[in-house]
Amino acid sequence: MTLHEAIQQVLLQAGGKSLTVPEITKILNANSWYSKKDGSDLKSSQVGARIKNYPHLFSRTNNLIGLKSTTGIIPKKSTPKQKQVSVKKIVLDDNLMMKVLINEKNFKSIADCEQNIPEAPGLYAVRIKDIKALDTVFLNVLAERNDTLMYIGHASKSLRKRFLEEELRAIGHGTFFRTMGAVLGYVPEKGSLIGKSNQNNYKFAPDHEQEIIQWMEEHLIVNWIATDTDLKAVEAKLIKEHMPLLNIAGNPGVINNVRMLRNKCKAIARGDR
């Protein structure tokens, strides 16, 4: 990744929030998106110079740096006749995006980053801090894989709505939230899906939802990337390659116990048990 691409990604991760050059530099030195050949830390002067050299990508207002476009399109300057000639697209390579999303150094606690999750489409990933917090069956799977990856998903319209509200806060019908609750041993109220048009979207009792949310805040770390690329295709590739513990569809390493626990919850909510 080039330095200006790394700066772009820092600002994308900030969810539209502008940052100072020292703040951007500190973030870049803490992760591995860009490394100098001699291995030394970046200096603010180097980051500031790169930003200055790419005025079509970055804006500067009162020492705060922002992206000139969060939608991926930046108009070039008009000709003297005020005719628009072309556009400049911010395009991050799919492989680069996947590395940024999965890199463990980029994950943070839910509390530390929830205010920055943007109203934009993108991809998200969830890891667990310590696999010992899981039941033995799931602990052993992650230990064997030498990984902590729990889930990968995508938000076609809004990361804030899909990822934060539905998946992490149980506002709506989050697939990850339902699966996480089932794996933790929670079950929905018996017959709660009877008469409902969707016979899969079971919900837990409100007090149980709060317990699941509290457990996730204590044990999980998250990361996301705001992008309008082919989300489903990138998500499918990531799931196939990394086999997250709780993904079922398209996962070659799907855990049968996960499927069984979800089916148990569905059966109870449908009144079959």
Describe the overall structure.
This protein has helices at 3-13, 21-30, 44-53, 94-102, 110-113, 136-145, 159-169, 175-183, 206-219, 231-242, 256-269; strands at 58-61, 64-67, 73-75, 87-89, 108-109, 122-128, 149-155, 220-226. The protein has 273 residues and is α+β, with helices and mostly antiparallel strands. The chain folds into two domains: 3-89, Arc Repressor Mutant, subunit A (Orthogonal Bundle), CATH 1.10.10; 94-269, no CATH class. It has a four-stranded antiparallel beta sheet. Strands 1-2 form a two-stranded antiparallel ribbon. Strand 1 and strand 2 (64-67) form a beta hairpin. Helix 2 (21-30) packs across helix 3. Mean pLDDT is 86; it is low at 71-91.
Helix-strand blueprint:
Elements: H1 3-13, H2 21-30, H3 44-53, E1 58-61, E2 64-67, E3 73-75, E4 87-89, H4 94-102, E5 108-109, H5 110-113, E6 122-128, H6 136-145, E7 149-155, H7 159-169, H8 175-183, H9 206-219, E8 220-226, H10 231-242, H11 256-269
Antiparallel strand pairs: 1-2, 3-4, 5-8, 6-7, 6-8
Helix pairs in contact: 2-3, 7-8, 8-11
Task: Compose a concise summary of this entry.
With 273 residues, this protein is an alpha+beta fold. Helices cover 42% and strands 14% of the residues. It has a four-stranded antiparallel beta sheet with strand order 5-8-6-7.
